Amino acid sequence: MKRITRLMTAAVLGALVLGGCSSNGQGGAAGGASAAPAAGAEAGGDGGTFAVITHGAPGDSFWDVVKNGAEAAGKQYGATVTYQGDGDPAKQAQLLDQAISQKVDGVVVSMANPDALRESITKAVSAGIPVVTVNSGAAESKEFGAITHVGQSEEVAGRGAGEKLKAEGVTKLLCVIHEAGNVGLDQRCNGATATLGGTVERLQVDVSNLADATSKIKAKLQADASVDGVLTLNPAVAVAARDAIADGGSKAKLATFDLSADVVDAIGADEILFAVDQQQYLQGWLPITFLELYRKNLNTVGGGLPVNTGPGFVTKENAQQVAKLAQSGTR
To answer: Which of 171, 170, 195 is CA-nearest to residue 311?
Structure first.
């Protein structure tokens, strides 16, 4: 019972953190690179075995923070946590099938392409393996049988970004999409379009080729001087856009989704207006917490609704505080 009490206390603390979200937020090895399992010596090693399978491989500045959160939770609960990721939906499904065959105690999975993962997730649920979806695919999570979803409403976050850009005087916005087929990125642009009150154009770039992304953004800004705002959906692409604006002599204002140390520094230097922060550390920590609660006590969290980790906003006012946390790998 002491064990259960500690776990339930952790979940309550997580909920309290989520309640304060509004005031504060890809390369890797091919074929599904995997981190070494994180064993929880602090808690006596009596936790479950959980597989975290995302569309972001180790080495990505965003997903490394998710991985840090999952591994920290594993250590807290004495669980074994293995992180694997691949941007190819078919390979991601293969990783999920492998985890099912290994009879893990639970799975955390992101669904940038839900249709490609439907069969594998359904297979996990049928095998009695609880699934928590994370980051993307909130609309399909319950339908596929997951016990909950942890992330943010991408369209709501996009609407917030559009409102803030409108307040900054932006009337023609370039929304830069870095992953083809990622439904969450389209939702972000849709949300910004709904609230900006101006024109929003989309530009497709490749996150794995940032030099080319810089060139494409620069060329677009030079070809259309009326573009006075750029919204990127990835921190690495944000840095590429910053360079494109500077190199092209554009006056466009820049904002982004998601954090990295470089983005936080750029906000402090007035090169980026703000970052929409979905607090991705919680997208690693909370799913492991919820799966351990389910394994120990059959608890479910959310009541059928997603558990929101954002959106929050990092601006120049709070960038210095966040910068210290980003350096430690938790923001």
So the answer is: 195
Q: Which residues, 6+ apart, have CB-to-CB distance to 240 below 8 Å? A: 205, 210, 211, 213, 214, 217, 232
**Structure tokens of 42?**
């602090």
Both 85 and 105 in one domain: the answer is yes
- What is the distance between the alpha carbons of residues 288 and 80, in angstroms, rounded to a whole number? 10
Instruction: Identify which of 261, 257, 260, 262 has the alpha carbon closest to the alpha carbon of residue 275.
Output: 257
> Which one, of 277, 287, 293, 285, lies nearest residue 111 by Cα?
287
- On whether the CB atoms of residues 71 and 281 are closer than 8 A, the answer is no
What token pair was written down for 296?
């120990």
Structural domain count, the chain: 2
Separation CA 213–CA 236 (nearest Å):
10
Rounded to whole angstroms, the Cα distance separating 235 from 83 reads 21
Position 266: which residue type?
A
Q: What is the CATH number of the domain that holds 148?
A: 3.40.50.2300
* Amino acid at position 105, single letter: D
Q: H or E element: which one contains 34? A: strand 33-34
The model's pLDDT over 248-300, given as tens digits with 9 standing for 90+, comes to 999 999 999 998 889 999 999 999 999 999 999 999 999 999 999 999 999 99
- 256, amino acid identity: T
Give strand pairing partners of 214.
none
Considering the chain, what is the average pLDDT of its residues?
87
Same-domain pairing of 17 and 53: yes
User: pLDDT tens digit string along 256-268?
Assistant: 999 888 999 999 9
Domain that holds residue 228: 154-277
The Cα–Cα gap between 30 and 88 comes to 10
Q: Is 87 helix (H, G, I), strand (E, B) or coil?
A: coil
Q: Which residues pair with 143 in a beta bridge?
A: none
Looking at the fold, whether 86 and 201 belong to one and the same domain comes out as: no
| Residue 199 CA to its chain's centroid (Å) | 26
> How many H helices and E strands in the chain?
12, 13
Q: Are residues 106 and 162 in the same domain?
A: no
Q: Based on the fold, state whether residues 176 and 266 are members of the same structural domain.
A: yes
Region at 58 (left for phi over 0; alpha for psi -120 to 50; beta for the rest): beta
